[in-house]
Write a structure and sequence with these properties.
It contains 5 helices and 8 strands; from the N terminus they run E-H-H-E-H-E-E-H-E-E-E-E-H. By secondary structure, the chain is an alpha+beta fold. Strands 1, 2, 3, 4, 5, 6, 7 and 8 form an 8-stranded antiparallel beta sheet that branches. The chain has a single domain, classed as Chorismate lyase, CATH 3.40.1410. The chain starts with 19 loop residues before the first strand and ends with a helix. The protein is 18% helix and 34% strand.
Length: 185
């Protein structure tokens, strides 16, 4: 069942989306979106700057689910392990710019990091990039297309994902750049 306000072609727990190393992106995405996809800095900070402060986070859902096989493999956890799933839309200039899906393994929400499970509509990126010793794993990219669109239409949007480590505890963040954002470039 699609989450309210979330386009149906975006990642979900049942997604069989194919992700590829960011190195394979070269030549497939041209123009300014290419630099946004490969940027290793804080997406939140870049979006806040681009929107000149007219930025907010819309929480779509935050609840316990099972990790899909691709997510579990990337996080190094048991297949179908219970994880906290947080899905949000990052808005800039009152437009939906980015869909973000974060996966928190139960073991990562223990101890000093338990507050990560209570972000609600606060930006996760601001927290992640303020953590001393935070490191980011390799970036993966994927192309998404709307199955309900007109065949042959340029309906694809691109996304990226990577695992972040705080105190050697992993969490996965996937970000998909929506058509309204692409149009603003």
């Amino acid at each position: 069942m699609p989450t309210p306000n979330k386009p149906s072609f975006l990642p979900s727990a049942s997604s069989r989306q194919r992700w590829h190393s960011a190195r394979t992106l070269c030549g497939r995405v041209q123009g300014p979106l290419h630099t946004w996809l490969l940027d290793k800095g804080s997406l939140t900070a870049r979006l806040q700057a681009k929107s000149e402060g007219r930025f907010h986070v819309q929480l779509l859902r935050q609840s316990w689910h099972r990790a899909n096989l691709s997510e579990a493999r990337l996080l190094g956890i048991a297949p179908r392990a219970r994880v906290l799933v947080r899905e949000v839309i990052l808005h800039g200039n009152n437009q939906p710019w980015v869909f973000a899906r974060s996966i928190f393994p139960y073991s990562s929400l223990q101890g000093s990091l338990r507050r990560m499970g209570k972000f609600d509509s606060r930006p996760l990126g601001a927290f992640l990039f303020s953590q001393a010793g935070m490191r980011r794993g390799p970036m993966e990219v994927s192309r998404f297309s709307d199955a309900g669109s007109t065949p042959g239409a340029d309906d694809a949007v691109w996304g990226r994902r990577s695992v972040f480590y705080i105190d050697n505890k992993p969490l996965l963040v996937s970000e998909v750049f929506l058509p309204e954002f692409i149009a603003s470039l």
